[in-house]
Amino acid sequence: MYLLGYVLLSLCITAYTNSGHAAPSSEKKRATEHIEKIVLGSGCFWGAEKRYQQIDGVINAVSGYADGQGVSPTYRAITKRSNKHNPNNHAEVVEVTYNSNRVSAKTLLMHFFEHHDPTQLNRQGNDIGTQYRSIILTTTEQQLKTAEELKTQFQPLLTQQGFGEIATIIKPLDTFYKAESYHQDYLAKNPNGYCPDLRTGVTFTQAKTVADKTDNTLLFQGKHIVVIESQGYCPYCEKFKKDVLNDYQGSIPVTTRLASQLDGLTISTPTWATPTILFIEDGKEVFGRQGYLNPEEFYLMLGQFKLGKSEAFNVAFDEGTDGRFCKEYEIFKNTPDGVFIDKLSGAPLFDTRHRFNSGTGWLSFTRALPDSVIEKADNRYGMRRTEIRSKSSGIHLGHVFDDGPNGQRRFCINATVLEFRPRT
């Protein structure tokens, strides 16, 4: 009997294991390590994935699809025109894996509600369709309860600020499908773009942020560049600062704002993307651009803004040439001690100590300041010349020749693209 019982017990254990019930050990391991998952959809998953990855306690954030029926869980399928208004379409979602000892589901869900517009039905910003619906898919009873409670708490705060009813769907997760590999860490792989910032500005701690009370008085006086940034981390904002703003020294001031800090200004460009660069004069937008701008794009727009349709713009961007003895030449040929700077970037280019009178009618220097210009071959018009461009902005400055005084070079420079700064 003892042997028979032992055999039967062994068979039962083997049958239990082979039937796929090995999960309890992995479940116990996850519980011991306090690892939980929740699936959240708040529009395009690229930016959301990146934001969740920045939260301390989040182990991983994976873009994917969920909550669909009869539609293949692939990007090609869910973006078909026939599925744009299909209520059974999959939603773009992010599976967030987190350590609940370090970050709670409540914290993640508060982040979810605050970082998009949960009152929009089947859209976020310019993204329209059922795939962009606001949705919370839970994996535990406590997550479900917390989500419902936070939805109830957030609604009156939204109502106070003029928003409608929360449209967020809250339900248990059925199946999560991981998105294609090129969607994973998309913002890191594609550095030239923008981060959608579609939040309402309403938070759980305050119905209206202090930031909304920003004083914009100075922006109503003259020309300004306004860069709309994200409240959270935006890689495109950081890249724009690194590539452009950190080296900008121009005369038109740069001001950073959140989309909620534009009170009183007349803006026509949508402000839901970060960065958004606005060129403003006397409080009114002249033109703007959503998304990352590289230095060449930024300085072209700045040139249009600052120079307009002028000889200076023609010289800077169409490689034109000042007229001999032009007005700016007459002003700059005898300035006090100082430096000549790029009219757009403000970067120092030439020093009066290297200036000389060549008699040509154009400003002439024996050298440029170190690391300030770029030399390029220019074989246009049947001539072989060396063109000089500003290293900071890329604008055309003039040419360099080998006929300077005492065997030195002669930098023949257009005065219209320069500004003068006295030496202090």
Automatic annotation (TrEMBL):
Belongs to the MsrA Met sulfoxide reductase family. GO terms for biological process: cellular response to oxidative stress. It comes from Pseudoalteromonas ulvae. The keyword Ion transport does not apply. This is Peptide methionine sulfoxide reductase MsrA. InterPro entries: Met_Sox_Rdtase_MsrA_dom, Met_Sox_Rdtase_MsrA_sf, Met_Sox_Rdtase_MsrB_dom, MsrA_MetSO_reductase, Mss4-like_sf, Thioredoxin-like_fold, Thioredoxin-like_sf. GO terms for molecular function: L-methionine:thioredoxin-disulfide S-oxidoreductase activity; peptide-methionine (R)-S-oxide reductase activity; peptide-methionine (S)-S-oxide reductase activity. Keywords: Multifunctional enzyme, Oxidoreductase, Signal. Its EC number is 1.8.4.11. Transmembrane segments: none annotated. It catalyses: L-methionyl-[protein] + [thioredoxin]-disulfide + H2O = L-methionyl-(R)-S-oxide-[protein] + [thioredoxin]-dithiol; [thioredoxin]-disulfide + L-methionine + H2O = L-methionine (S)-S-oxide + [thioredoxin]-dithiol; L-methionyl-[protein] + [thioredoxin]-disulfide + H2O = L-methionyl-(S)-S-oxide-[protein] + [thioredoxin]-dithiol. The keyword Cell cycle does not apply. The active site is at residue 44. GO terms for cellular component: cytoplasm. Has an important function as a repair enzyme for proteins that have been inactivated by oxidation. Catalyzes the reversible oxidation-reduction of methionine sulfoxide in proteins to methionine. Residues 1-22 form the signal peptide. Residues 286-423 form the MsrB domain.
